[in-house]
Amino acid sequence: MTFLRNIFFYIVMLGVIVTLHELGHLLAAKAFGVYCKEFSFGFGPKILSHQGKETEYCLRAVPLGGFVAMAGDTDNDLETKVDVKDLPPERTLTGIAKWKRIIIMLAGITMNFLLAIVIYSLLILSSGYYAESTRPVINYVKESSPAEKAGLKADDIVTKVEFENGLGIDPETYLEMLNFLDAYDGNGPWIITVSRGDENIRFEIYPEFDSETQRYLIGIGFSDKAIEMVKVNLLNCWKYGFSYALFVLKLTFSSLMTVFQGRNLDQLSGPIGIYSTVSQTVELGFEYYIQLMAMISINVGLINALPLPIFDGGRVLILIIEALIRRPLSEKAQNAVMMASLAVLLLLFVLVMYNDVARLIGG
To answer: How far, in Å, CA of 199 to CA of 190, rounded?
Structure first.
């Protein structure tokens, strides 16, 4: 029963994230008059379908994605081919202005970020308060602490914090820095850059574990006014939800950059890894489950923004290039870029599946 319950919540999470992503494409396409033959959650054989006025809405057997079959878009021809011979050009994706196509491509990513903002906003609203904080200005440095030995001083402004594995963030507030440091795994130094007068100074500091607080510390303190608890209501919760979603986005982007630098490749997860994480959060409760949904939604949006033609970001990049050179890319160039991006995606898929299986066997 536990397995079936976890599978249910796993499919629900993927369903919400993927459906909203594809719904963004669908709504934008329809707004510009593009003919959409099918809106589908999943791939493979159809399980359920409903024929709307123009678009067929389908549930397919493999719940690991989804698509919108738009006229003029050949990406989903293996699932649903759209015949355009009887359609006027302005009802096809290739027959509308490039700026409209860019909006359609970006609409799915936008929906992923909106989902995260809504979730974080409602969670903050339910708590009743939100912690706002000032810039990360060091108020004091503890005597004989790692920070003092390294050379940090009061009034230094922290502008960047990194770990040895390449993960880093440019904190705009004390809380952003604190939340980031909670991700420290106990290995290597904290690489802290501070602004001191007209200088930017970089320090490598090894934190010490404090048994009382159960945290790694370096011996710096901030003003008592660094954190202020603000009362939240239905009007201002969206602002705070957006701020927190932006912080998660920056942290996710930093993690993704370390992967492209060849670091932390063992941290990548695929469908099996996501299922395992979903199972753990279901045990913890609904709040943790929807927090994970928001985080995965941001991950999906960010991955889809990558400049690879297989993703929305890559297709937008091609449209921008074509607009700049004022002609379409040659079919040969498009095929070469597509094959290269498919090779990258295949390597990534093999890596995440290896990681998932290794964790499964080891765990």
So the answer is: 19
Tokens of 298: 């941001």
**Contact partners, residue 325, CB within 8 Å, separation at least 6:** none
Burial of residue 185 (CB within 10 Å: 0-12, 13-18, 19+) is: exposed
Residues of the chain with CATH 2.30.42.10: 129-231
CATH number assigned to the domain with residue range 129-231, chosen from the 4 options 1.20.120.1760, 3.40.50.1860, 2.30.42.10, 2.40.30.260:
2.30.42.10
Q: Quick one: 157 exposed, middle or buried, by C-beta within 10 A (0-12, 13-18, 19+)?
A: middle
Q: What are the residues facing 129 on neighbouring strands?
A: 231
76-126 pLDDT tens trace: 655 667 777 888 988 988 889 999 999 999 999 999 999 999 999 999 999
**CA nearest to 317, candidates 299, 290, 343, 338:** 338
Q: Which positions ≥6 away from 339 have C-beta within 8 Å? A: none
pTM: 0.84
